[in-house]
Amino acid sequence: MTVTVAALYRFAPLPDCAELRAPLADLCVELGLMGTLLLAPEGINGTVAGSAKAIAALLDRLRGGWIFGERLEGLSVRLSQTDAMPFGRLKVKVKREIVAFDGGATDPTQRVGTYVAPADWNEVIRDPETLVIDTRNGFEVAMGSFEGATDPATTSFGDFRAFVDGALDPARHRRIAMFCTGGIRCEKASAFLLDRGFPEVLHLKGGILAYLAEVPREESLWRGGCFVFDDRIALGHGLVPVPVAQEAA
Hints:
The chain has 249 residues and is α/β, with parallel strands linked by helices. It folds into two domains: 3-94, Alpha-Beta Plaits, CATH 3.30.70; 114-241, Rhodanese-like domain (Oxidized Rhodanese, domain 1), CATH 3.40.250. Helices cover 30% and strands 25% of the residues. The protein has eight helices and 13 strands. It has helices spanning 17-31, 52-63, 118-126, 138-143, 160-167, 184-195, 207-214, 244-248; strands at 3-11, 34-40, 43-50, 76-82, 90-94, 114-116, 131-134, 144-146, 175-179, 200-204, 222-224, 226-227, 234-235. The strands form four sheets. A five-stranded mixed sheet has the order 4-1-3-2-5. Strands 6-10-9-7 form a four-stranded parallel sheet. Strands 8-11 form a two-stranded antiparallel ribbon. Strand 2 and strand 3 (43-50) form a beta hairpin. The chain starts with a strand and ends with a helix. Pfam families: Rhodanese, UPF0176_N. Keywords: Oxidoreductase, tRNA processing.
């Protein structure tokens, strides 16, 4: 049986997130889904897996005015398939942030950087005037990244703030392009950089997963595997699970 995996997120005002947790968990149980979903006052984030029909039903509910109203209409979703369930259980949690960064001080619902479509990403990162930054943590970068990208050497996403303040300068770094796994970290990172006065901030729309799904291998500037937070460990081009040693070679 083929399992469909949905990586999803949306920054949206959810002040009632605590009340939303139980009905969302009940729906996931009803649909037979496994994985993790996080709710916070700033939105929803997570990865869940199940049958294609069950995933479609969940997405219809999230986007269709169910308990969230119209707040999740712009939900970002990246689908992939695998031969076995990559999660052992279901977790639906309420958190302070859907991606921990600075306690909610940075608000990506107000403004974020400029999105770059996967098809246009190669041109952007080949520009010698562009500083390309991998916003993920060190162990993720070690598994794979884009050619020539700067590794901030972080152990948690919150460390990215210190990297920016210590290594970057708006006067010198006039054009910055960032990427992450699915796009969510770049939403916050780009908002943070704009708040710090950086004039041009770009980020890969849909993240590495979108790039691997849409850009042909023969045109790709990606090297290695893309770490994912489930039992598949790493994905390659076409979002196919790959042996880590093979992709890192």
